[in-house]
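Example 3.2
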Amino acid sequence: MRIVKSFFIAFSLYSGIPVPQFEWREEDMKYVFCFFPWVGAVIGVCFYCWMRLCDRFCAGVLCRTLTGAAIPLFITGGIHLDGFLDTMDALHSYQPRERKLEILKDSHIGAYAVIMLAVYGLICLGALSEIERRELQRIVCGGFFLSRCLCGISAVSFPPAKKEGMLFSFVKCAPKRVVRAVLCLEGAVCIGVMLCSSLPAGALVAGAALLSFVCYFYRSRKEFGGVTGDTAGCFVVCCEGCVIAAAAAAEIFIFS
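Structure, written as tokens:
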């Protein structure tokens, strides 16, 4: 029953999908991160169905791209994008570490958050418009799952920037070795499926996701002294951006 509750908590927290509500107890939160990637699986299924629907009815590139990019926002409610905006403001403040952590808590959006969101959106929309092959679309769908596997691994493996907040409360009660093992297994299976779809493209996209994971480790430790809920959300957004960009590169340079 605790595992079932962890499943519902994961979807309640990291998506806007209606699930049964109940009082959250510490023992019910142990395996939340194990189910975090399955939110990405739902996004991937919806994204792939939309792409197939667009092919079936010959929808235009603009409609396919813009609506496809909006699907993750519809499902998650923009929770990770909020972390991206806060992190961009903190990083571009060029203030001492303590001040950056304070900026992460600030609910106001600064100029750099808007600028970086615009840059990110333009790059992702441009890259997404290039992805037409079905195997590449399947790989991108896997990227939504893989990004959350890597985010969960970072949460239970990387040092926390502060001993407070929602992320820390979940990590504190999680059996780290078990959760890490489950997430590594899920991530390995996901990469395997991506490689089966297309070996060169799958390797390129998985490599881009893993590279973003390494960069996240060093950047978060250098800038903030560890990870927080906001930096975790920022990583999910950036990792998905790297996946889409790598898939577009595969479309252009491998399959053209």
